[in-house]
Specification:
Blueprint (H helix, E strand, L loop, with lengths): L1 E3 L13 E3 L5 H11 L3 H5 L10 E5 L2 E3 L11 E6 L5
């Protein structure tokens, strides 16, 4: 399925903004991304296996927070990383 990668994580993908990955859940999708682009999963998932607070994931038009959310080959996945400053 098509996965849109946010600018702060593109250093892992060789500055590519869209990649393809496989899986039946968000967790499996992230594992496949990490296999293709080592280290990217740790930037999205914390040590307890939860989506990091500053990460947002959309499966099609629906925002999701659970890594066990089902995905299908027809889905477009958008990953966004909130930026903050002060």
């Amino acid at each position: 399925m098509l996965v849109r990668i946010p600018t702060p994580l593109r250093s892992y993908t060789g500055n590519v903004s869209q990649v393809h990955a496989a899986g039946t859940t968000v967790a499996e999708l992230f594992a496949d991304l990490d296999q293709q682009f080592p280290g990217i999963r740790f930037r999205m998932v914390d040590e307890q296996g939860r989506l990091r607070q500053h990460m947002k994931v959309w499966v099609g038009p629906e925002a999701v927070r659970e890594l066990d959310t089902a995905v299908s080959e027809a889905d477009e996945i958008t990953i966004m990383q909130a930026l903050s400053g002060g």
